[in-house]
Amino acid sequence: MSGPEEVPVVIVGGGQAGLSVSWFLVRDGVQHVVVEANTAAHEWADSRWDSFTLVTPNWHCRLPGYAYAGSDPDGFMTREEVVDWLAGYVASFSPPLVEHTRVTSVAEHEDGGFTVTAEGPGGVRSWSAAQVVLATGGYHVPIVPSWAPSLDPSVAQVQSADYERPDQLPEGAVLVVGSGQSGAQIAEDLHLAGRQVHLALGDAPRVARTYRGRDTMTWLAQMGLYDTPVASYPGGLAAREKTNHYVTGRDGGRDIDLRRFAAEGMRLYGMLADGAGTLLRFLPTAESALDDADRVYNSICRDIDAYVEREGIDAPPGSPYEPVWRPGSETTTLDLAEAGVGSIVWAIGYRPDYRFVRVGAFDGSGRPTHTRGVSAVPGLSFVGLPWLHTWGSGRFLGVAADAEHVADHVVAAVRGDLAAPGVGRS
Questions:
Q1: Which of the pair, 387 or 185, is modelled with greater confidence?
Q2: What is the pLDDT of residues 234-284, one digit of tens each?
Q3: Is 92 in a helix, a strand, or coil?
Q4: For residues 267 and 329, is the Cβ–Cβ distance under 8 A?
Q5: Is 142-346 the same fold as 5-140+352-414?
Q6: CA 75 to CA 78: how far, in whole Å?
Q7: Cα separations in angstroms, 380 against 20, 358, 419
């Protein structure tokens, strides 16, 4: 391997967040590279199931210099449409991408700056940079219970990121573990395909798809919820650990009502506690999980009611959600063999894995420490994290503002002017 290539800025990750930072650097004439382990924005094609749609309206899709311009702003793009839209973004400004090259190390120089080492088709390659922007997101390693290997090997175990379609799974019933956005939508996908679904509920909240004549997320955007800084949000920085509300954009968009699915035959359980062989044990939390999810649903509707009244908006009347089904009792065990369960889909989240970053910018749990993406380590920034600054940070709607803030800081540092306009703005 020859010596490191000199470049002012290295962006690690070519998803929408890294590309957005690149757009600002291209605009400002700052030399940089975007190093991507696969291809630009590949996760939209590789980590979403066949029937996937966005859960936010298409008008939310706004990246720097590039916004959704289709004929259905209030609709929900399919996976293929999102992939095509992002391909158009890449073509719109031709970022300096280095694809199929995985970064294996980011290390500090003793005298400042970083060495970024990567492996690609041509072997090992490295860059020496004053600024590094980590844009790999926060969902790296799927969470699986430590006891999962002790389950009967005849039961297939699939990660939500690897789920594609119902007929991909072995015959028989399916246990989906987790009721966040992915788990709830995958359970719906299987249920609509006629599969017997068992669903272990977590503590995810839910939200109405539409309320009082508009998409709920359009209301929330108008109300400024997506722009509220995390430090000002109820609970403060703890909001970063919250699970997103479940809802779907499928078939034009609708609520996901797990109670209705249960009335149609889906089996609901509380949180999965442990298991071995074919026997699983659940906590008796199904009813409380459903009640809590509905409580959030109705709370958001009440917030919209208050906003409509306060602003004098002419909108159709609304009404609270009333449960269509309640569990008669809590089922706390499941024998996979007796129930004919042939597969388990794990959808209980991810944990970050920044072990390749040999820089002291993480807390005790391995999560980045930063202020709106800028770490305390000179030259190291993050972008593309959920709740990086606002609720919108993890969505297309908020990426541009976060990317601009980080890019302003990077450009000022490269040019030696940390007091440049825009740097540190709220």
A1: 185
A2: 665 555 556 789 999 999 999 999 999 999 999 999 999 999 999 999 999
A3: helix
A4: no
A5: yes
A6: 10
A7: 17, 11, 17
